[in-house]
TrEMBL record:
Any Pfam family: Glyco_hydro_1
Keyword rRNA-binding: no
UniProt protein name: Glycoside hydrolase family 1 protein
InterPro entries the UniProt entry points to: GH, GH_1_N_CS, Glyco_hydro_1, Glyco_hydro_1_AS
Family per record: Belongs to the glycosyl hydrolase 1 family.
Transmembrane segments: none
Domain of life: Bacteria
Alphabetically ordered keywords of this record: Glycosidase, Hydrolase
One function term, GO molecular function aspect: hydrolase activity, acting on glycosyl bonds
Location of the active site: E364
Species annotation: Candidatus Clostridium helianthi
Amino acid sequence: MSIKFPEGFLWGGATAANQFEGAYNEDGKGLSTQDIAPKGVMGALTDEPTEDNMKLIGIDFYHRYKEDIKLFAEMGFKVFRLSIAWSRIFPNGDDKEPNEKGLQFYDNVFDELAKYGIEPLVTISHYETPLALAKNYDGWVNRKLIGFFENYVRTIFNRYKDKVKYWLTFNEINSATHFPYMSAGIWTPKEQLNKQDLYQAMHHELVASALAVKIGHEINPKFKIGCMILGVPNYPLTPKPSDVLKAMEADRENLFFGDVHVRGEYPRYMNRFFKENNIEIKMEPGDKEILKNTVDFVSFSYYMSSCASADPEKNIKGKGNLIGGVPNPYLKASDWGWQIDPEGLRYMLNLFYDRYQKPLFIVENGLGAVDELITDENGNKTVNDDYRINYLNDHLVQVGEAIEDGVEVMGYTTWGCIDLVSASTAELKKRYGFIYVDRHDDGSGTLERYKKKSFYWYKEVIATNGAHLKK
């Protein structure tokens, strides 16, 4: 049986401003939390931006967006996921007036995408809170950020209301419980941050997200606005009932965020979690009403699955599992220790759809690997990345299976469709793209773009609407 994807399926690729734009201090842009984090999510911060921070230049999309979008169009992209750098629009986050040059840049990008018939899918906040909001307000711990975010959201919704249809509020909103600085701009060091402040910050983000949905639908009722969840299914390590319950609890830590976005209220199971962790969410008047502005679709990233065990001796986090989880003895791992589980994507799609009955959008999935640039028999520089083709093929086959299961899937955007700086490790040698960018972790390179073997493979997948995939 051949794999069938629905008509109008949105094939494309995904990026984030702080990982590929560069131009970190050009045309009025302010500093973001990423500009002083040269080593990624686990690394120490610096006082000022430093030359070893690969994100400051990224791959220079800021100056090369026409060239890159032309390559995306050549692959046949129907959609391109990008984020707006908040500090490019409001340099300090709390500014009264926006930075016109920043707004104009995204106008130019959206116009270029429109030229090729590519729909933008825009993440409003993707791991780069304006640095001033982190330093002066402690990020989302402070309720004032809701107002600053509202000002930002109204500005971009009004500006791009005729150019952008698909929006995401916060990238991987559930990741803030693991990476509070990167995800929520919280200046207090993680080891000093108590759970009360952390979940209060999450409440502020959830209110802000729902407020964005409300505002967006008022400005343009045709907007489709989704949430974005870091999707990691948790399997019980054994059939032991305590392991099954542990997996349920681990899943709920992530599902909680989707539940609020889709159902418009806090799920009852959180009452016990809050009670046992001495958390009391401060709800302001009107918060419960705002939360009722639910999303139009649910988007998520998927890279790996993990296991859960109630046995303290077995509950040892895998080296590549950024958000915890026990390694699965049945799975292989990538060079960075991320366990490869295509069937987990089918499981995740069914889990979300059974729970929410909302359209789903896979907005990140891909393989980070060390690529070798070679010269082929025709004298062209390329990368023979069959390992990436195999990874993506196997995951997309499972997406097809989920669609056959009855799951409503809107689209699929591979992560890092053009090589960019990794979020987890802030290195460029961990490459995801269909397009090789000649830049290296020592800062060398020409920034020239080269098509990998996977470029032509993905082009064929899109052209055949998935029929090119091999089961």
